[in-house]
Amino acid sequence: MHITVLAGGIGGARFTRGLLHHLSGIGDGDVDVTVIGNTGDDIRLFGLQICPDLDTVMYTLGNGISRERGWGREDETFTVKEELAAYGVAPGWFGLGDRDTATHLVRTQMLAAGYPLSAVTEALCARWEPGIRLLPMSDDRLETHVIVDDEEPGTRRAIHFQEWWIRHRAGIPAHGFVLVGVDEATPAPGVIEAIRDADVVLLPPSNPIVSIGTILQVPGIREALRATAAPVVGVSPIIGGAPVHGMADACLAAVGVDTSASAVARHYGARRSAVPAGADAGGILDGWLVHASSDSASVDELTPLGIATRAVPLLMTDIEATASIASAALDLAASITR
Ligand code: FO1
């Protein structure tokens, strides 16, 4: 059985860890999991190519993640960062860890030698053994930039997503997001096949705009999701009107989507309508999990739209709770017939 997961950073990594725990718990050895990772968060800093969401998935599943931060390495130090600051080298707001820097050095060196990002990611995963196949959404260089107000009233400028996210804590209004490089980008090798040949496609509670939404912008990926024979089931990142982690509400507001479990599902859109049954509805979702019981009303709202919806506890408080969510997503997928 092939399961394909489209993941961003912390939420996607935690969900996938629970999915693997569930699969090992039911002794389902003949299941393989492919994670298609978001690379829109990538940033070139101090000459290093940094891939936050790929590294967060790799470190989380490889047990090297900082449990406290959810990103970067356990037992981390920041001496290089301090020394760069002593030289007055900007930017000072990015948390560049020393152990993490080794990952960026290997990646940058391999990219410079001509290896594509997918080969680099495979090489890095050889050390971490995440238990999944981790594919970047594209081998092409892509960056999410955020449109914010400039000094002059009425003027705007673009800043890198990481500056908006880390330096500004998503606290300055975003007027939109631009995926720089997207027009020339193609999916990385294996990405389309992983969606086409999947038995189930899962959308974990990652940021629907700047993580999963970014993956969907790579030419060919949305089309592959709409065409796959696999049921596509998502997990709401919004519980009771608020994101549990991160700042998805600021991202949703930027694109005019309400911060609710229902609004996110409608944003993804139903793949097939309920009436007339099976007609193309233009979206990518077949199933959706919402939090019981704060969002149970979404079930009656979304089901008539063609999105099979169930309410289950969605707080990923520990690996057992997360495994239960993954199990519920797989059960929902199994109940969805083509
Ligand atoms: N997130 C922060 O809030 N502060 C940081 O200083 C920071 C540094 C960082 C370094 C490497 C890395 O892989 C991730 C890092 N993150 C940091 C998370 C990063 O901003 C991710 O893009 C977000 O978590 C969104 O997925």
Note the main attributes of this structure.
about 20% strand, magnesium ion binding, alpha/beta, magnesium, about 35% helix, three-stranded antiparallel β-sheet, LPPG:FO 2-phospho-L-lactate transferase activity
Walk me through the structure:
The chain is an alpha/beta fold. It has one domain. The chain has 13 helices and 14 strands. The chain has helices spanning 10-25, 52-61, 79-86, 98-112, 117-128, 161-167, 191-196, 212-217, 221-227, 248-254, 261-268, 297-302, 319-335; strands at 2-7, 32-37, 43-45, 48-50, 133-136, 143-149, 156-160, 176-180, 200-203, 232-235, 238-239, 242-243, 287-291, 308-312. Strands 5-2-1-9-10-13-14 form a seven-stranded parallel β-sheet, sandwiched between helices. Strands 7-6-8 form a three-stranded antiparallel β-sheet. β3 and β4 form a beta hairpin. The radius of gyration is 19 Å and the shape is globular. The two termini are 17 Å apart. The model has no long low-confidence stretch (mean pLDDT 97). Bound molecules: ligand FO1. Ligand FO1 is lined by residues 8-10, 41, 52-53, 55-56, 71-72, 94-95, 100, 162, 165-166.
Question: What is this structure's SSE topology?
Answer:
Layout: E1 2-7, H1 10-25, E2 32-37, E3 43-45, E4 48-50, H2 52-61, H3 79-86, H4 98-112, H5 117-128, E5 133-136, E6 143-149, E7 156-160, H6 161-167, E8 176-180, H7 191-196, E9 200-203, H8 212-217, H9 221-227, E10 232-235, E11 238-239, E12 242-243, H10 248-254, H11 261-268, E13 287-291, H12 297-302, E14 308-312, H13 319-335
Helix pairs in contact: 1-2, 1-13, 2-5, 4-5
This protein binds ligand FO1.
Ligand FO1 is lined by residues 8-10, 41, 52-53, 55-56, 71-72, 94-95, 100, 162, 165-166.
GO molecular function, one term: magnesium ion binding
Pfam families: CofD
Keywords: Magnesium, Transferase
